[in-house]
């Protein structure tokens, strides 16, 4: 369950080493156990320099990865998880849990309490999930609400102290590092008994509960006979409960209007104390019966002090909010494009913004654009080979808008122009970006009156909703497009 | 043992203790401050320390090897007491001792001294709030545990343990331990320290279970106490079970060690001082189950145990998710197989846990599933768990690494009734096609997710083999489209290497799972051939793939690639890739097309690299046994190539081809072990097959021994027996006489020898120049079954004095033997020598001795008492013996020889006779 070592490495392509170790921590008492448990398969934790080099090589983050290198590129070198074996000093350091996010590589090596050869299955190693929790925790701490590099550096400098608190001996005590930071600050406050370890300190002040529902809608539209369009709503309910008392109890109910789309695939925060089995079984993959559970969805919990994600859900709404097609035909050095978008009548026609991005990959730079839009305006970003159609706050009364014209390209020079591994030949897409405030596609809402709070004082309850687009693609219907198995089953 | 890191353990005479003692658990302080570093140079400032720590962290080994390394550990301990350094700097010093104790204090004595010093520093802290107490406790714990110093004989351990337990139980330790506000965090820290010590030395807290339970029930901090109790409980159960002892009231034993009282090490010592796996991996844990069954707790003990576990589980909601997971792993495996402990205790937690998105919690549920199986999870529960896992493996709200881990968990799912072989990834039975299809790959996935889902798709295809033929989109067809998409991406000109690697990894995965499905393999083969046609620069990937796949894909792919290459004109830009592929796929099939391609290509092989590539193909053809046409090509290359190295190479190949028979050629051209040299490939390759073609030194598989003597013929002949350990062909044994005593010996030849098959003795005629014994050094030259020619030195073969003995041929058959002997006897003098000696006889008597050793040489015999022996010694000497009037213990021997140098040899020989029996 313990970690032998943790690293934080910034990925810096173009520099000699391609990266810098920004933080590392080793656990000698765990290392001592590793030596006993691993026996002859034991490989010691290397120093930062060799580790950095081996990890960047394995993750293909070194600059010179042009040539075929068998130990990395061989067809039998198959990695299906974020767990790697690094060849260091003749031995294989395994399991190294690592991933890259926001140009930062998070890595650690969990203790495996047995011999490493052959590798035991990852599922049977308790330290693996603890590794992930630790790394996700660091990632959240560094990047949630982080605005600039100075702030990042400040947080990086806090890590040694935080690790003394959250992971003093390699066994993780709390993946929420912000919590550990608070507990350092709260250390002088006397703790009452039976207080959750994840609720450090107490709140003093006006009681209030804030609930926001954010739905993201994604879609893949093909405009083809044999391929079905797909779309899905992913919701997140974020809460901040400022309530006095050691363990205030709160119950939040999410409701749907009569024609609302049922919530599925619900994942809850660990502070939720109990769950209706209907919530647990409502699934988008394999609905157990036809009568889908349509709420209300009750979540009783004791809130942590900080803002947290009470639950996530998905939903299958009957129609996509914007349905469209995109036709692109190549004619020598120019392409002819036609786009049509239609907002569904049931959707609130009041956007914070709405844009369609039309990128052109694997081509030369845009030299000339001749396009007509029925509504909104078109901007051309030549250096990015990108057209942006700014639709604005509202669709016109007809709810339908279109764009057509030709785009001409110059000669292709590989380095400068955007490369994409999907958009080969005629394969192309346009991507919609939009946001609608005070609206959810499923209709899901948290009724202020249904929020029950068992704590002193009557709290002020505020609720917020918004819908935003995410991965909303409309593929060129005149060429092949990447499909999922689901869209083939008509 | 080095003493330099242990200030108190050696060095100059101590100047007396500098540390005043106070506070908890008094113990003689062992830290003496002396030597260099503190007085003379002045204390390093904060900046100096920052630099020093920076340099150390950059490379601890380099720093410790440098001039400053020696003093770092000692300086650090001293500086912790310095009043000039800020607390923050001291915390960073302590951080170093938390991470690198083994480097700073490399042996147990140094660690003990360092821990003592840290404890002294702790008790010396002024009673005001300080940021140093926690890190000092952590550091002392780390140094003791990591430095192998923890134990009943360690003074620091005897101080630290009661201190920690006192803090953990919230006892008032007096003002010395800081203000009351610090007590709570210190209590938690002390619990963590104890947990770490218990992890390193299981059983350490075996005596404190009752105390910990009470503390947990009262006001103690829930999380640290829960985890500590769970670990101590688990370790105690395992140790007691291993010792085949009962629980013996362990759970209620309430009285913890009294302050200042002795610590009870009994259980820790029972545990053998080896760390116990806290959450053993599943297959490894199977044995332990049986282990715990021997505990057989009494009903009362079982009730207590259940109460303790229920107490821990009930408050588990108050723990952070990662700590809850740790608790479940610990308790799950602690109770597995223990009688009277129903796993149903865990049931109330499960629904709550299944609802979360927390990776550690879902993983812990899977661990419980693996531990208890059907006893905790009915088939319905199992199905629900699978659905949640499937959902989590693709939930858009979760990050990619979590998806990948859940996908792994699905393929390694601990099923109630597993069907397939254990340890192999497989789709669980209850996953079903609907759930499975939601996890199929698409080109839009990240490479790792794509491979993981592709594996699942392959498993589904393997199950589906018979079903769904004729339908629109069978999984097989989808798989085919997906692979085609991956090939299209790999084909992207200038695309990253990773895309190509992904395409080949996917192809390899498919072949491994679906090797028996021609429906999948045939389009794959042709798709790959097309990919090669479009982008020959991927040749290294093709070669790698061919190296790793079985014949199902390998054979057809070789054929289509060969066809693909040889059907081209030889002057392609991608010629070097074509040659690389041909070197892999060329064989005895349709050699004329291959040779035609090579002939055409030769004209365009203008640089050294291309010529080498061309020659490598020739080499492959030679190995494949192609001769016709190849000799002409090589001859042409030997004239035509620009580069002298290439020409030499071609000529060498030609010579090899012309002179070596097929099998030998195959061996000679086998994979070369020599690393390629940059200057001349010929040199590099020579190292490989020159070794094959030339004679190699080898340990001899041959044993030579000297057989029975043959005292006949014109000269002495050695009879050699040969045995071999492995088949040996064309054996040639070469002998050399040490010194010039004998004429040079001819070699002996044996065509074939096999182990266990006796061979007729080899006769080695000797031509001594003097009648003296000697040694023959022997070398063997032979061919192995693999066609190698080897050379070996064999142990020397001794030629003994008696091996030279020959009878006198002219001795009359029946005439005057006595006269003949006397004539010889007389003729020895005066130029010869005479001697008398006593030849001891064994129990067998003279007659037996003579018949065994001297029979062929006896001229006159009067058994059993008198024998006259005449021996001819080549080249032209004689030795005459009169053995007369034998007695019980021996026989007097008169001997004469015409060569004085023979006398001592004869004496030795005769005296040795009785010994040889």
UniProtKB/TrEMBL annotation, chain A:
<dbReference type="GO" id="GO:0016197">
    <property type="term" value="P:endosomal transport"/>
</dbReference>
<comment type="subunit">
    <text>Probably part of the adaptor protein complex 5 (AP-5) a tetramer composed of AP5B1, AP5M1, AP5S1 and AP5Z1.</text>
</comment>
<keyword id="KW-0458">Lysosome</keyword>
<dbReference type="InterPro" id="IPR039591">
    <property type="entry name" value="AP5M1"/>
</dbReference>
<keyword id="KW-0963">Cytoplasm</keyword>
<protein>
    <recommendedName>
        <fullName>AP-5 complex subunit mu-1</fullName>
    </recommendedName>
</protein>
<keyword id="KW-0813">Transport</keyword>
<dbReference type="GO" id="GO:0031902">
    <property type="term" value="C:late endosome membrane"/>
</dbReference>
<dbReference type="Pfam" id="PF00928">
    <property type="entry name" value="Adap_comp_sub"/>
</dbReference>
<dbReference type="InterPro" id="IPR028565">
    <property type="entry name" value="MHD"/>
</dbReference>
<feature type="domain" description="MHD">
    <location>
        <begin position="206"/>
        <end position="476"/>
    </location>
</feature>
<dbReference type="GO" id="GO:0005829">
    <property type="term" value="C:cytosol"/>
</dbReference>
<keyword id="KW-0472">Membrane</keyword>
<keyword id="KW-0967">Endosome</keyword>
<dbReference type="InterPro" id="IPR036168">
    <property type="entry name" value="AP2_Mu_C_sf"/>
</dbReference>
<keyword id="KW-0653">Protein transport</keyword>
<dbReference type="GO" id="GO:0005765">
    <property type="term" value="C:lysosomal membrane"/>
</dbReference>
<dbReference type="GO" id="GO:0030119">
    <property type="term" value="C:AP-type membrane coat adaptor complex"/>
</dbReference>
<dbReference type="GO" id="GO:0015031">
    <property type="term" value="P:protein transport"/>
</dbReference>
<comment type="similarity">
    <text>Belongs to the adaptor complexes medium subunit family.</text>
</comment>
Automatic annotation (TrEMBL), chain B:
<dbReference type="Pfam" id="PF21587">
    <property type="entry name" value="AP5B1_N"/>
</dbReference>
<feature type="domain" description="AP-5 complex subunit beta-1 N-terminal">
    <location>
        <begin position="75"/>
        <end position="144"/>
    </location>
</feature>
<keyword id="KW-0653">Protein transport</keyword>
<feature type="domain" description="AP5B1 C-terminal">
    <location>
        <begin position="820"/>
        <end position="912"/>
    </location>
</feature>
<dbReference type="GO" id="GO:0005765">
    <property type="term" value="C:lysosomal membrane"/>
</dbReference>
<keyword id="KW-0813">Transport</keyword>
<dbReference type="InterPro" id="IPR038741">
    <property type="entry name" value="AP5B1"/>
</dbReference>
<dbReference type="Pfam" id="PF21589">
    <property type="entry name" value="AP5B1_barrel"/>
</dbReference>
<dbReference type="InterPro" id="IPR048981">
    <property type="entry name" value="AP5B1_C"/>
</dbReference>
<dbReference type="InterPro" id="IPR048978">
    <property type="entry name" value="AP5B1_N"/>
</dbReference>
<dbReference type="GO" id="GO:0030119">
    <property type="term" value="C:AP-type membrane coat adaptor complex"/>
</dbReference>
<feature type="domain" description="AP-5 complex subunit beta-1 beta-barrel">
    <location>
        <begin position="728"/>
        <end position="797"/>
    </location>
</feature>
<dbReference type="GO" id="GO:0015031">
    <property type="term" value="P:protein transport"/>
</dbReference>
<feature type="region of interest" description="Disordered">
    <location>
        <begin position="1"/>
        <end position="21"/>
    </location>
</feature>
<dbReference type="InterPro" id="IPR048980">
    <property type="entry name" value="AP5B1_barrel"/>
</dbReference>
<protein>
    <recommendedName>
        <fullName>AP-5 complex subunit beta-1</fullName>
    </recommendedName>
</protein>
<dbReference type="GO" id="GO:0016197">
    <property type="term" value="P:endosomal transport"/>
</dbReference>
<dbReference type="Pfam" id="PF21590">
    <property type="entry name" value="AP5B1_C"/>
</dbReference>
<feature type="domain" description="AP5B1 middle">
    <location>
        <begin position="301"/>
        <end position="665"/>
    </location>
</feature>
<dbReference type="InterPro" id="IPR048979">
    <property type="entry name" value="AP5B1_middle"/>
</dbReference>
<dbReference type="Pfam" id="PF21588">
    <property type="entry name" value="AP5B1_middle"/>
</dbReference>
